[in-house]
């Protein structure tokens, strides 16, 4: 099957809830107010609790206490709250997946790592509102879960212990597309913003010199995550084309350190079961 065919099948199983659709409609409606959005969020206690936990986490580092959903929307902004809502409902949508717990724990840890790395790198490079990049890292590889649902043997075949054959290269060889391609197709079916879909679709392109800063940062964060997860004894350059990027190992080391510090806190909110591995 092609990436879009996997995504279409997945769209019948992994569905964003009616609450998400209503929140999206309100955010897209310029006449909506903060209170309108907060009111719909409050109808889902689990979503409200998750949003407030994340808003008060060290990830945002807000100096005061955010104790209401309305204040979260006001302080963090509608876009950032929308991203947190996407994060929550995405993890909820994939609860019906047919996969072993160890596989899911590893997947979500790597996804959170990529999310933390892209946020840190965006902040270091003075990208405005770098927290918004978190959602790109979290969602970047959902295509792996899609393929796992329908062809788990192919997920195993896509795994490579050889750093000379990087994961996205192996995926192209086995599937004819990458997990990023499949992710982009699923997000398109979910009608998520193009600003999310485009960087995720282009994350494996070596020729991204002219791409947006979001695409370049996802390219960088994903590869640092891959190196850190699978090839920690190798230099960072193992996951980059020689002429693609000028590496600053000190910045990348700092990004990995930040990731190690923040990982458990984010996992404990988004995927509580995953903290059992620590």
Automatic annotation (TrEMBL):
Signal peptide residues on this chain, from the entry's feature table: none
Coiled coil: none
InterPro entries: HDOD, RNase_Y/CdgJ
Domain HDOD stretches: 13-206
PANTHER family: PTHR33525, TWO COMPONENT SIGNAL TRANSDUCTION SYSTEM RESPONSE REGULATOR
Protein name, as recorded: HDOD domain-containing protein
